[in-house]
Amino acid sequence: MTPKRLIPILLVLGFVVAAFLTRGFGLLPKPDGPLSLYGNVDIREVDLGFQVGGRIADIPVEEGVRVKKGDLLAQLDKASIDSSVAQAEAQVAQARAELSKLERGSRAQDIAQAQARVVAAEAAAGDAQRDYARRQPLVEPGAISRDIWDATVAARDRAQAQLAEARAAYSLVRTGPRSEDIEAGRAALKAAQAARGRIGTDLGDTRLVASIDGTVVTRAREPGAIVAPGETVFTLAIDRPLRVRAYVAESDLSRVAPGMKVTVKADGNPRSYAGTIGYISPRAEFTPKSVETSDLRTDLVYRLRIVVDDPDGALRQGQPVTVAISNPKPKAE
Hints:
The protein is α+β, with helices and mostly antiparallel strands. The chain has three domains: 31-43 and 240-325, Efflux pump adaptor protein, beta barrel domain (Elongation Factor Tu (Ef-tu), domain 3, Beta Barrel); 45-77 and 204-237, CATH 2.40.50.100; 84-201, no CATH class. It has five helices and 14 strands. The strands form three sheets. A six-stranded antiparallel β-barrel has the order 1-10-13-12-11-14. It has a four-stranded antiparallel sheet with strand order 2-9-7-4, with no helix packed on it. Strand 11 and strand 12 form a beta hairpin. Helix 3 runs antiparallel to helix 4 (146-175). The two termini are 47 Å apart.
């Protein structure tokens, strides 16, 4: 190839190289680089206390201990609850016996007894009526005194009333309890059972157990202390899943999306942690003072929630962190 034909080719190659190095002589946009965000490890804690009051008998765990859901944290003295349980059991047994008596109705012996009382009342009423009939003609002639006659009339009336009472009682025994009485007995049994269930619940509430996996960060009471219902005895830190609260500037909002992979680093910790963006707030806010960014604090930002995939004990709640996104989306023009 002659030098004259080589010169145009070299000029074209030089032009292409210059255009590449200068991104079209400054006419093409510069590529967007990695994105760095700033935030803190979320502080997630739950206060735990007894649902009933009493004296703490035992606390088997110390601060800093990791516990599993359901692990025993503290135990109340349950002597008074045990006596209440026994009383409730007795009331249930009594109510059940009363209902059984109502549902079975009158016994044959009760019916026979009521019938015998009717027979006795009929005999007494007959005697009183005969005395009344025998003495009535003797009143006008004055053969008997007015006092004797008045006593005779009163005895007859009393015997008739007792007969009516005996007959009514006999009828009630033969008919048996009313349906309303049986329903009342059933309601009384249910009330006694409910009271026993409530006492049983109180007995279970003398045990304070961990509601979730976590780490004990505060042990607020000691054995022997008297606590009220709902009073905080433990504070439990929830560290799984571990979440990071970070903030993205409004200008970079289009570059992030849920599901995007990130890297989390903390000062003084050589390890990098993998994470995933799980949530982007739909509401803008001013940059929190706890977040250090290269922009002004008054810039509008959006909160991100990042779930750390592989946390360890070195990444602690409240710790400031830097979130690096190596492949964000291109910035919107």
